[in-house]
């Protein structure tokens, strides 16, 4: 089922429209505070799903770009006073950092494991640095970095051109939903373009793509940048939701969570990680309300079980089940046909 | 003069610390090409084992040198049999599964001991260097690290076990050719690696105090020390421990400890970019 036109390829428009309508109707029956957060997490998961699932690049430090987006927005909004420029900066800054780090890694042709270490170390550096920026010495323009306590009370998102019209509550929920759906469509568009196909080719066999004449490091750096930008946008939206930015956006926990969402949802799909982010996000919030079972215990157990039992994640496994079920039915029909023919043959022989 | 002595002692301590917490990870990575991201949590569990045993009235040295390695070794054995052995050859999956294991262990320890810091008194009193008060226990840590590194080197170089272990570094076939079952060797290697992590946790426990989340503080340092060190277990770990330890402490003395740590991490990034096979992929090729 391919979508009609728009050059976006495999979008199931009927599902997408249904989902959009449902999401738009949600505020009528439910308060939007939690759904907003879940949608932000879904966007964050989407950014990693695009890079890991389709280009095969696993970053153990994707929280770096999420956090950079959040900090870029907070710092810029203090200095600019309205939110349009900070919002753009929250996408540009992580993208530039991702481009630099990506180029460093991919042109160095380091292997998967070393890539994991380097991305992790970048996140740790940012975490340590931001934790150490307490005091007046650390300020960028009007914004004090605030160390462990982070940056509170920055101007939140406003209607472009009118700083007095702040966007919050249900309106903010719609902004986030539009961002999520927009990002999803951009991902689909990327994957349908020749760029996306080359990325999938690189994931399948890097050497072959290189021998075919593609500049593999350039493509990898490009998708790393796109993914970083998307994570930055998610971070910016998160900052506006929480109305405070602390160094915990760079924490290992944040990185681990997004990895878990993506692998549980399934590599090589976009909708899987989005759903996983929402479901596991709700689980996390539910676990946060009680003290009997620790949140990280459950997350850890889920990660181990998924890697051991369904290493491809839920969405592809689910799709495979459906295919197999369909195949079984076809086989059964064929088998019945053969049996009938055989019986007929025997009767004819007798 | 006193100040110089202090700086040197602190650098030595940092080097010993890095070598100690990296030993277990280095063994597992060097021989099995497996990255155990639950390493930090193994160290953390070792620390809790020591503190729990010491609180129960057991001699603290016995607790850290015997009980912690045994407890964590047994955990490692179980983990290898239940999780890791199904994933050999799938490096990224092992990293993910062991990361999950790390979270799981953190959660379990939080359930048992609570999310509050615990500590045990340092068993060796401090001493004076000129005007400065130094921790006497730091010297003990240095001694343990030296003994550990020397005995590991000796064992790898001159014993039958070491021969098999070095064979394991070459690959599965070599172990089979030596007449051993690769599965058993990998199981034992992982257990020994875990036990060494437990030892490190036990020895460090009186100095650092413990929180369930402290594993994260260890894993990054151990990780970069081992990976930057490269394939040769002892030479790589010692070289990078010396380089990182010195850089960390010198920058720390010149500015703040946080900048020292950041300098160490940045240096690791640069070294990895310049030498993707690790330091021993570039130098000391034929070392252990």
Structure description:
- The complex is a heterodimer of chains A (350) and B (288).
- Chain A is mostly helical and 350 residues long.
- In chain A, 72% of the residues lie in helices and 2% in strands.
- Chain A folds into 2 domains: 13-312, no CATH class; 314-350.
- Residues 1-7 of chain A have low confidence and may be disordered.
- Chain B is mainly α.
- In chain B, a hairpin with a 2-residue loop joins strand 1 and strand 2.
- In chain B, helix 9 (215-229) packs parallel to helix 11.
- Chain B starts with a helix and ends in a 6-residue tail after the last helix.
- The chains are: A mainly alpha (350), B mainly alpha (288).
- The interface between A and B is large, with 43 and 40 residues.
Quick gist of this model?
The complex is a heterodimer of chains A (350) and B (288). Helices cover 72% and strands 2% of the residues of chain A.
List keywords for this structure.
heterodimer; A: 350 residues; mainly alpha; 2 domains; two-stranded antiparallel ribbon; two-stranded antiparallel sheet; 2% strand; globular; disordered N terminus; B: 288 residues; ABC transporter involved in vitamin B12 uptake, BtuC
